[in-house]
Structure formats: structure tokens, C-alpha cells
């Protein structure tokens, strides 16, 4: 007797959307067992991790501050992923966006006026888009795999970051520490709700969710991307431009990651430091798939991932659990998501007799 | 602006002499008081964050309190959230133990004037923000003396983390110590741009040994470079904690950061209401820096290391005292001139004997 995995003829749309929800429920059940094993009251621990972080106004705001860059990047990535353009280098595009925005902030340091901040927005988008354009060019000109080129450019971007903060952009009053000076107040995103860190970028993220939803679900362009991803030959017959869609995917993906980088330096951090890259560009890949490459799904996926970080801190402070609890929960979540997807696409048959 | 550092000797000496630490009396209040710690690494790094956590545990034990820690906190936008969370949840004193937590600590401190903050290795202070650090370079000088005696090739491989004054002063102190016994001694250095990356640290160690170095020194936090030395039958120095169990035949000694008394003293001051903002830069003399037992070396080298340690502790030996030459051989510190703490804390030049440029 053995198990066979057989593709299902008809895929259930309902289950495709329910699978992340099921994965989350299974993750909660599993982590309850882990908490119990660690000698904590499982229900109380789950409450500390998943509910307590958002019980206060500030905590609720922090959830959106943490989720904003994830959502913004993931929507850009989803555009490409739908068209089978695998941009893995959003982290590098995020860094370049932050660098370009910082360039503007430092160049106009003496100009203590809000147009500086306004000019940082296109600079951030440009930096990210430029870094996305390189893999697009290499793919179309030399047929170089964008998974490799975009990933490797991430390391180039972090070295450029280090060069700048240790050299030309080093804070003149910073005792030689490799980081830029703090931006002038004019170069930081306006805070919109007092007592919280909610800034313009958080609302920009929500705007991009709506824009992304329209673009991907309602526009001809979204349809073209989908066809290119699912049936490249059909796309060719229909006269859709593979070149154009590849360029678009990487430029928009890079631009949005760059914009996220701009909002991260111009506000929550307020200066360029080597500590800027904390993996948003990579976590956003998980967010994109958790959200089924659908903008509304990505919004929820981003909030769930952000909540897992906040909850991990709560768990350390309130329960004395180690930081690894975050990674374990994220790992379990991904595991169940992949498992659920497998069972939605395939069914398992118990076969008797010898394996073929 | 000049950084003024004071030694911690007096306060610490007084506290210990009075025997006040274990005999802390206010048990009722002690049980309510909470101290919070923010670490950049995992407490299992066996280096920097591990030693801070050892200090936390010692302070808890001495004062009869339980404290909170949050580990692996990134130095970017996340740090402010974590520090604020600790301030918000009733922690009376918060230790933020990495340079990158400086500005987030100050931001939060502004909003919680009644909470005391202690930031390690930074230079910005406020009425409720102290700074504290250890003169690690004292240990580097002793290591240099040992390396000068022990190295047959006369070349030490030095793994740097990030080219900030902290690391540069350590490298310079090392070569000054080494050249005091072997005027031909040289340092080959590699910067890995990270404080903790066992893979990169091991690769750097291998590359340096392949280039003719026969002793490894490191300003990074994992035991990986020492383990490489152990595998190759060579010697090296540990970092931040005693790493002898990772390299029983390789570790010559290690600079051991000793935060126990500082954390106990400062937490106690916050509990009693006597806490005041200050800046401490303690070394061997104040007891914030220890040397791990000298091992894997002949007796005469051991004697010499112990004598050097005693001289630094007693103030007989001043490390950054001229004549000191810069890398290119030009005079940097004139004979008899002594660098003050401000000049040391801003050090951005390499001394003669260190090869290669600082990464730019």
C-alpha cells in the first residue's frame, strides 16, 4: 500500500481563498501546543501574541506602521509574480529607494521646508525602479535569469549603502560612526495621528492596495499580466508584448519597493543607517503569496505578518519566551499554507499494490 | 564637543565596600520594580548579548527582582517600538545595549521622563539617559603583547566588524602592544561589516591564516574564528566572553565584558531614587573588564601578560601615549603626548604596523 498524489481536475476557487485562513487556524492550534509544551497557558499565550499587541491605540497604529512597507512591496511583487517575472531583489530596490531619498534629504539639508520631503518621494521611486530596471534589461537583452540578477543586486545595494554612510554621507558630528546625520524635520513624513507613528506612507500603502486592486483585477493590463503568466503562448498570439510587461513588472515592483524604502528612512528611522535593511523585501515575498497575489489578500497577509512581529515582542516581554517564537510561528504558517495549497490542487489516493 | 568620560571606580567601590548589594532591604518595593533590557543579538551568541544577559541575571539575583529582555531587536525602526513598549509596561529602568539604539532611546526617553534609560556605547545623553561603555582597548593591548611573543610569522590576522572608532582604537592598541615586544609585528585586517555572522567570521579567519597570519584576533562576536584556529592548531583570542570551551587548545585569553556590578548598581539606584544621568567608560581598574585566564602559552609569556595587565590597572602604563606613528610612518602622537578620552573616542586613523586601508 502506498500514497499517490493526483492532480484535481477542477480547482475550487472557494478553497483557494480559504486556504490561507485554514493555514492561520492550523498555525494557532499548533502554536498553542508549543506554548503548552513550554509550560505556558496556551490560550493566555495566544492572546498575548495575537490580540494584546493591538488592544491599545498605539499598538494598533504600530501594526499598520510595520505592515505598510510589507504591503507596498508585496503589491509590486505580485504584479510580476502574476506574469512569471520573479523579482526576488525587492530588498535591494528598497535600499536604493532609501538611498536616493536620503540623497535629496541631505542635499537640501539646509532647506527646512516641506518640498524637500515631497521631492524625496519621486527620488525613492526612481532609485527602486532603476534597481529593478537592471534585471529587466539583463533578462530581455541577455536572457539572464532575473531571480539570480535581482537577488545579487541586493548585496550590491547594501554595499553601496555601507560605502555612503561610511564615506561621503557620514554624519560630520557622529564620531566616525557609519550613519548619516538625522534628517531635518522637513524631510520626515508628516505624522497624521498624534501619539502614534502613523505617517503619510501608511496611507500611501492603503492607496496602493486600491490602485493595485483596480490595476490587477479590473484593467486590461492586469488581464495581460495574468495571461502572460499562465499561458505565455496565448499571450504571444494575442499580441501582448512580453517585453513591455516584463519591463513594467520590474519597474513597478522596484519603484514600489523604493517608495517603501523612502518612507522607512523619512520617518520611522529619520536617517540612513547600515541597519536599514531588515528583510522587508524578502518578507514581502511571503506576504504576496499569503495574499494569493491579490491586493486585498496582500493587505491582510501584511497585517498578519506584522502582527507576528509585534506579538513576538509581546511574548518576550510578558511571557519571557525567546525571540525565536516569531520565526517558528512564521515557519509553521508557511508550512501549513504550502500544505493546504497542495491538498487543494491535488488529492491523495491510497493505492494498493506495488508502486509503479 | 568633547566626550567626557568618567571612570566608574568610585561609585562601584563605595557600593561594594558598604556590602550594600546583597543586603538590599526593601523587598516589598523590589518585587514591584521592573528592569528592561534590549539586545541586538540573540542571547545565545556567546559574545556581546550573552554577556549583557549574564549581567542582567546577576543584577536580578542581587536585587531580588525579575527583569524583562527582548533579544534580536533590529537597530532600525523596530527599536523605538520595543523600547517604547518596555517604557509603557512599567519598566523603571531600561538598558539598550547596542550603538544603533541611541536615537530611538532618546526619542522614547523624551516621552517618559520618569523612566531611567541606560544606553551602551553611545554618546548622546539626557537627564534620564546615561551612557556607559568599557575600555575594551585595554584588553587588546595585552593581547598584542601576547601575540608579539607567541607569533612566529610576526603576522596577526585581525577580523574587524565595522570601521568605527571603537574598533579602530582596539586595532591600534593591539599593534602598540605587539610592537612593544616585537617591533616588526604586523596586523593583516579584514572588515566583515557585521558584528555577528559566524559564516563570514570563519571565512575571514581562514583567508587571514592562508595569508601567513598565525594568530587570530577578532572584533566580532561569535566563537567561529577561534574554532578555525583550533582546527588548524593555531592560536587566537576570544571576544566579549570567555570562549575557552569552544577552543580549548587555541584561546590564549579573552576580553570578558563584566556588566554584572554596573547593572546591579544602576538598577539599585533607580529603585532607591538616587539615579542620575552620567557617562561611564570603565576598564580593568573599575572591574568592568576582565581577562579570561591566560592559557595555551609558556610561563614567561603568561608572566608578561599578567604584569602588563597589572600595569594598566595601576595606571603605570598608558596605552595611547606618544610617540605613535600613523600607518605611513608619519608622527601622529608626539613623544610624551597622551591622547585624551575625546581623541580616543573619535579615533579614525590606523597606527603603523596595521596593513590595508579602512573600508570606505
From TrEMBL, chain A:
InterPro entries per UniProt? ABC_transp_permease
Its predominant location is membrane
One Pfam family from the record: BPD_transp_2
Residues spanning the membrane: 15-39, 59-81, 93-109, 115-138, 147-166, 198-216, 245-263, 269-289, 296-312, 324-344
Give the subcellular location.
Cell membrane
The record's keywords, sorted A to Z, are:
Cell membrane, Membrane, Transmembrane, Transmembrane helix
Task: Mention any one GO cellular component term assigned to this protein in its UniProt record.
Answer: plasma membrane
Q: Domain of life here?
A: Bacteria
Q: How does it sit in the membrane?
A: Multi-pass membrane protein
Offer an example of a GO molecular function term for this protein.
transmembrane transporter activity
Protein's UniProt name = Nucleoside ABC transporter membrane protein
Q: Which organism is it from?
A: Dongia mobilis
Automatic annotation (TrEMBL), chain B:
Supply the Pfam families for this chain.
Bmp (PF02608)
Question: According to the lineage, what is the superkingdom?
Answer: Bacteria
Look up keyword Signal and say if it applies: yes
Query: Which cellular component terms (GO) are annotated to the entry?
Result: plasma membrane
Q: Which keywords are on file for this protein?
A: Signal
Q: Which residues form the ABC transporter substrate-binding protein PnrA-like domain?
A: 34-301
What the entry lists under InterPro entries is as follows: ABC-Purine-Binding, PnrA-like, TAT_signal
The answer on whether this UniProt entry bears the keyword Cell wall biogenesis/degradation reads no
Report the transmembrane regions from the record: none
Q: What is this protein called?
A: Nucleoside-binding protein
Which source organism does the UniProt entry give? Dongia mobilis
Organism phylogeny: Bacteria, Pseudomonadati, Pseudomonadota, Alphaproteobacteria, Rhodospirillales
